[in-house]
Amino acid sequence: MEFRYLGKSGLKVSEIAYGNWLTHGSQVEEDAALACVRRALDEGITTFDTADVYANTAAESVLGRALGDVRRESVEILTKVFWPTGPGGPNDAGLGRKHIMESIDGSLRRLQTDYVDVYQAHRFDNETPLEETMSAFADVVHAGKAHYIGVSEWTADEIRAGHELARELRIPFISNQPQYSMLWRVIDERVVPASEELGLGQIVWSPIAQGVLTGKYKPGAQPPAGSRATDAGGGADNIARWLNDDVLNAVAKLEPIAAEAGLSMAQLAVAWVLQNPNVSAAIIGASRPEQVSENVAAAGVRLDEATMRAIDDAIAGVVVRDPALTVSPDSRPGRG
Q1: Which of 149, 162, 273, 275 has the fewest CB atoms within 10 Å distance of its CB?
Q2: pLDDT in tens, 121-157
Q3: How far is CA 198 from CA 176, 187, 304, 314, in A?
Q4: Over 80: is that where the pLDDT of 288 sits?
Q5: What is the CA radius of gyration of the chain?
Q6: Which residues are catalytic?
Q7: Is the pTM of this model over 0.85?
């Protein structure tokens, strides 16, 4: 495993982070989830990402139990707040002070820890004054419940506004967590330059595009049994945008490129996002321990310019780049 600083902070994170969205507490039985976390630790992963909304808080509880016997100082735990949790009351979502202050305590209880390393705003809250949100985050940091703050899927303008307030409040705002992959590059034009200027690092999710970049989905064929595309609990919805023949035919062109580089398709995808110097870590998920080991092999891989050009040529017609696709809900979300 190799490690990178998270933005311009003094915090180091593992290049490969382990995340439990769509797995722990929902798709994967707890024994399998615990085995995946154990394998992640064995492979040198120290950075673990979760959120209170994942499986309506159950994912945090699973991760807390999985890390229960690990020296707390040896891992970095990241969680998030914004989406609805609990029964879905009027203040059970968003970035209002009430929800943030109650949510951090719930997350710490479920994670069985006194603090998280990074507490992240899971989206921008268009119904709450940003000053209120950042003041609440400042109190979380000053109380010792989080060392740093970060955001997820904020636009460049939102990041700039949040960063200005964070400086005034003297709290370290160090990261953004966007979707990013060979196929989804919407942060390149605006978010990455703003983050580089302000000292934020990216902790990217879905580097394998929900599994499409593994090559297991074939044009004109039914998705493999047990794959994310067959999961009615949310996995199928998230992967649907990629399951068309144009994308799958383009992805198939990556197979010889991966072979030439001595990598699996998944390793090539994870290694690709790590070539971006503003990316501090790539989050992987897993339902089986062997998936963790395969993806970890992408750590430290350096792709040469010819390989990077070949990747761009193979998928040129299906890459999504529109920066306007970094967006948060117009109104505070409710549950169902």
Answers
A1: 275
A2: 999 999 999 999 999 999 999 999 999 999 999 999 9
A3: 11, 15, 28, 33
A4: yes
A5: 19
A6: 54
A7: yes
Digit-coded pLDDT (tens) for 199-223: 999 999 999 998 899 988 887 666 6
Cα–Cα separations (whole angstroms), residue 8 to 4, 175, 180, 196:
10, 9, 20, 9
% residues pLDDT > 90 (the chain)? 79
User: Which distant-in-sequence residues (6+ apart) come within 8 Å of 326 by Cβ?
Assistant: 153, 154, 155, 178, 186, 187, 190, 191
Look up tokens 């897993």; give the residue.
286
161, 195, 204: which is closest to 49 by C-alpha?
204
Assess contact for 176 and 205: CB atoms under 8 A. Answer: no
As given in the structure block, the two tokens for residue 92 are 């059970």
> Where does residue 302 fall: left (phi above 0), alpha (psi -120 to 50 degrees), or beta otherwise?
beta
Task: Spell out the alpha helix ranges (H) of 85-129.
Answer: 97-111
Distances from the Cα of 228 to the Cαs of 28, 89, 209, 236, 287, in angstroms? 12, 30, 11, 6, 10
Backbone angles phi, psi at 189, to 5 degrees: -75, -40
- Relative to beta strand 76-81, strand 201-204 is unpaired
Look over the chain and give the mean of its residue pLDDT values, rounded to a whole number: 92
* Structural domains in the chain, sorted by start: 3-325 (3.20.20.100)
Query: Tokens 């493999």 map to which residue?
Result: 224
Distance (Å, rounded) from C-alpha 309 to C-alpha 187?
19
Phi-psi region of 276 (alpha: psi -120 to 50; beta: other; left: phi over 0): beta
